[in-house]
Design a protein that fits this description.
The complex is a heterodimer. Chain A is of the alpha/beta class. Chain A has six helices and seven strands; from the N terminus they run αβββαβαβαββαα. In chain A, α3 links the parallel β4 and β5. The longest helix of chain B is centred in the C-terminal third of the chain and has 35 residues. The chains are: A alpha/beta, B mainly alpha. Chains A and B meet through α1, α5 and α6 of A and α2 and α6 of B.
Chain lengths: ~210, ~180
Amino acid sequence: MVVVSQGLLWLIVLLQAVALLALARQVGVLHERIAPVGALAMGRGPQPGEAAPKIEARTLANTVLHVGGKLSAGTLQLLFFVAPTCPVCKNLLPTAKTFAETEALDLILVGDGDMAEHRNMATRFGVDLSRFVIGSEVGRAFHVGKLPYAVLISELGVVVAQGLVNNREHLESMIVAHETGLHSVQEYLEHRRTLREADSGRDRQEPKHF
Amino acid sequence: MDPSIELASRILGTLVFATALAGKVRGFDEWVGIVANYRLAPDLFARPLAGLIITLEALVVLLFGSGLVPRAGAALAICLLCVFATAMTINLLRGRTEIDCGCFQPGLRQRLSVALVVRNLLLVLVLSPSLGAASQSLSFIQWVDGIGAGMVIFLLYQTFGQILALRSAVVVEHKGPA
């Protein structure tokens, strides 16, 4: 009787260990299959690598703000296009603010339309009015058609990445684009595939380099 | 020491070396490349060395698995694990962490890391009971315990290998494709 119960106990432990191994392998399979996500580039307006248009825009504080052009060393400018009528924009705005703080980005909000509504929005989300551009010039210059939209500009005034953003991961993909020099997820995946091919080939070729 | 522990240690050793052996035989050319990548012997010796390691691992499986000369099997297995750990340490000190460890555990390839050296040393510790006194006769319940424990530890070993491989893959991606 003791032997049977002991045997059953081991059987259960064994099945659990098999399940654990299967789960670990499944995590590996999922990791291989799931592609990273990024901001959806629209293929219009200034493309990554091109100079961002230099615009003198009016803010909600009735001051003039320079968008584009050369920035101080080490600064990255994040243009975040929003509207008070866009629910995703309102959801993403607090995330964009903390993201900009964490990554030390110069965050500029851009809106177009009724000034009072935009001012209410800025007050509600605690945005500095002098960092909230109002007007259609910036949106037109970057060919923004859908919201929320973001553009990351480097210290040299060059567009690093741009696209539709719906969550923090999309925003982070823009910083990844800046760090890696790869402008889109497609370019990143292609680069990763090339690296892997080179990597597996190296195992066979490297014996030459003794 | 309880003979069931010795049995568990033998089963674990047999399964670990049998899976590694199967992987090396299946991908022999890749295995030769991995041996060469360690850069511990001239290029000319990479293929014979790869063949020698496969032969020694087959011998471990035979001695351990058959149970005829388990102590010799254990001694050989421990020697091989120590040699592998030394080879990995040398390459870690050289900073060559990007090469494949050649562990041939299922799933993703594993790059060299301190964790792999520690894993080998832990395996040495787990296999050491087989170096002890000659096997006493086992009761049925000791057989059940020994086989159960040996197989479960092997599955956990494979699971940790998988997690380590996954971790190194994630680290490589986070370092970026630059």
